[in-house]
């Protein structure tokens, strides 16, 4: 529903600085150490607008395959709302377990149905992704996450469990 895109606000100066600083870091890392995957942490206070600024970073860097992983699934609505209501992200697609279930499909089916010529954001929780099948392997519904070459992986609410052994293994 593109008519629901009512957000027209711009980034605040501190968000612009964070996005520019991150872009500079990624560009320098790619130039200086092309075989290393760069990692960058935004240690921002609540109400900074990390979701919106993260999407703006993706937009400015031309990322079209975005994976958001969280340790706190309750933040899904904020990620979806920022993407689906702001005019800057017209045409972008949001896929999650919750959204797929509302369509009576699972997340991998929703991803397969998505238009690969438009930007795709996949939102997943570690609770969903850390589970295994009966043989200890990756669940079928999550295989596409491991098989996709993501432009960026955003870890949200990182402090809630990134240091756990299962999370490190998934990374």
Task: Explain how this protein is built.
Helix content is 41%, strand content 12%. It is built from eight helices and four strands; from the N terminus they run H-H-E-H-E-H-H-E-H-H-E-H. Strands 2-3-1-4 form a four-stranded parallel beta sheet, with helices on both faces. Helix 1 packs across helix 2. The longest helix is centred in the first third of the chain and has 20 residues. The N and C termini lie far apart (34 Å).
In short:
The protein has 171 residues and is an alpha/beta fold. It is 41% helix and 12% strand.
Helix vs. strand class: alpha/beta
Largest sheet: 4 strands, parallel
- How much of the sequence lies in strands comes to 5-15%
- The tally of strands reads 4
Order of helices and strands: HHEHEHHEHHEH
Which descriptor suits the 3D outline? globular
How many angstroms does the end-to-end distance come to? Answer: 34 Å
Q: Order of strands in the sheet with the most strands?
A: 2-3-1-4
Radius of gyration equals 16 Å
| Rounded mean pLDDT score | 87
Q: What proportion of the residues is helical, as a percent range?
A: 40-55%
Question: Characteristics of this structure?
Answer:
171 residues; alpha/beta; four-stranded parallel beta sheet; 4 strands; 41% helix; 12% strand
Write the layout of secondary structure elements.
Layout: H1 13-32, H2 50-61, E1 65-70, H3 76-85, E2 93-96, H4 97-102, H5 107-113, E3 120-125, H6 126-129, H7 143-147, E4 152-156, H8 165-170
Parallel strand pairs: 1-3, 1-4, 2-3
Helix pairs in contact: 1-2
